[in-house]
Amino acid sequence: MSNVVLITREPVINKQHKITANRLVIHAASVAQAVEALNGLADVWPTTHPVFISLYKLVPTPDLLKWTPPANAMVEIPTQSIAHPLTLALIPQLQAADISLNLTWYRDDLPLPPDVQWRFVIIDAKRTALPLAPPGLTLAWGLADVPEFKGAIAQGYDGASGWFFLRGVKTDGKLAPSHAQIVRLLNLVRRNAEVKEIETVLKQDVALSYKLLRYINSAGFGLMCEIQSFRHAVSILGYDKLNKWLSVLLVSASRDPAAPALMQTAIARGRFMEQIGAAFLDKGELDNLFITGAFSMLHLLLGASLQSALDEMHLPMPICDALLTGDGVYAPFLKLARALESFDDKPLAALAKELHITSEQVNRAHLEALAFADSLQFG
């Protein structure tokens, strides 16, 4: 029996296209192993949004009660397991502990136990029709792309779970003027232009300056003092860190109503790569790892091809190689970050093995990155 426990995830998206919860899919050989892994992640647990816990193919059993769940945790109970004696024994104990329950893979032909309150009901939208009287808030699963999500919302679903928002997005346009302005700022910072020259560009768009300072002062950055101005930011952070935060600004510049989920995912990718790469690369390269992950969704966020977006910027070659051809020193870390975004852990396990990274390292970096991305305010 393998002792390896890996965690992948799916986001939960509301009608406004924002991530309002995260589903952590625990891939373990037993519930006891899953509990041990979860208890070891308490210090990096993401607390901004609710967190759904899926035990993947395991039957939920009372062993789960040995986990000390954070206040925002919800436990998923698969409909197929609901008649299992151990699951039936677990449910009232979870309710007594005031732990919210979600029902997954809902089917209207299977009876549900009485007196159970379900917060969310996840339905495979390809296989099961939306019930007239669902036992909780409904989330569509198995959607192919953004148009299917819109169709599910029109049918009456309260939201959806999955990565559908990565598909069905047009990327054949050109950079908007507001995006081009941020690219101009990025290029000025990268060539160490005078602070006065950069401030002149920032003053042309007060909203940009405000948003940049809001990000820098967010809890995720961990500064001991509040940054009051761009000049103050330069003196405290230096140009390398400002380059990173201007990159965040570019990723979050889209005004598309569907953009918030993409933004959160892009930042989570970047932060994960930065965290996991710390054991492999010099400290000076970690910001480039962050930018690689964050920019891996730039074409979706800006509605322009990745090549055309990168052509406007003077990025280091390893970033361009990873983004455009999947090659170079940063590419394995980007592949690892993408492998977290799945219901299947096999690609993640293979990539981690190639890099000689333990499951504990992957899981800790994953949850820390998720907590960091959730702490930023998009939109």
Offer a quick outline of the entry.
The protein has about 375 residues and is α/β, with parallel strands linked by helices. The chain is about 45% helix and about 15% strand. Helix 3 links the parallel strand 7 and strand 8 (about 160).
**Rg over C-alpha atoms, rounded to the nearest angstrom:** 22 Å
Which CATH-level-2 architecture of the largest domain? Orthogonal Bundle
Under CATH, the topology of the largest domain is which? Hypothetical protein af1432
Helix share of residues? 40-55%
Oligomer: single chain
Q: Give the SSE string.
A: EEHEEHEEEHEHHHHHHHHHHHHH
Taking all residues together, what is the mean pLDDT? 89
State the fourth-level CATH superfamily of the largest domain. Hypothetical protein af1432
Count of distinct structural domains: 2
Overall 3D shape: globular
Distance separating the two termini = 45 Å
Strand order of the largest sheet: 1-2-3-4-5-6-7-8
Q: Class by helix and strand content? A: alpha/beta
**Uncertain spans, ≥5 residues at pLDDT below 50?**
none
The biggest beta sheet reads:
8 strands, mixed, barrel
Number of strands: 8
Please tally the helical runs, counting DSSP H or I stretches of 4 or more residues: 16
Name of the level-1 CATH class of the largest domain: Mainly Alpha
- DSSP strand (E) fraction? 5-15%
